[in-house]
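This week, study the protein below.
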Amino acid sequence: MPVLVASDLDRTLIYSSAALALTMPDARAPRLLCVEVHESRPLSYMTETAARLLTDLGDAAVFVPTTTRTRKQYQRVNLPGPQPAFAICANGGHLLVDGVTDRDWHARVLARLADECAPLAEVQEHLARTADPVWLRKQRVAEDLFAYLVVERELLPPDWVKELAAWAESRGWTVSVQGRKLYAVPEPLTKSAAVHEVARRTGADLTLAAGDSLLDADLLLAADRGWRPGHGELADTGWLAPRISALPERGVLAGERVLREFLNATRTAAP
């Protein structure tokens, strides 16, 4: 039976320049591989060692990139190793099979959102009305599924975020702050639901997962084993759960450690 490895991407496996956390002396910094270019500029990286580990993992397990990114944002990421047969985008809203959206899955997601939470338009209107131009830089909608703001993080009032989270929860939505982005996402829109579907289709009897943010908590809880880096929302709040390992590494070296853990667990599970 195959092992399924579902991993968040940003700040779990791949890192922007600002998130690398290269705290060691320059001469000891790891060699980096650029895995994403946007508007002709390098955007995301992993270590060369992590790239080798991911290539080995792709040969040993069913590796499923599992991201809140839109399909367009995901498709500009050029990960090393075999092309994944499955990928999960838009926090579970789109299941890609050989790079193409599974329309039946997407229709099921839309039906559930319509039944269980307030409409996107209501959330958009609330964000537009309450966000302060002093710290708001952009307001965006992703795949007509959820909304996010690009903010000046140091100016973002914590009380406003708490009030937004309470308002959203009463309407079946959740709020997550990741770097300069604040996400408002319907509670039924989860990575774990899409991962369960991939496990069903592949017959996987062991699921491994990793992630750093509040939006990854359901993914980690649904896995047989999971890991979180030493940075991110989950680490900042001290989030822990059974079968979840909190890693000490921060930044790009955490991505390397996550891949080592994935590969070791996959090989241990092999008959």
Notes: The CA atoms of residues 53 and 260 lie 7 Å apart. The chain has two domains: 3-110+189-269, 118-186. The radius of gyration is 18 Å.
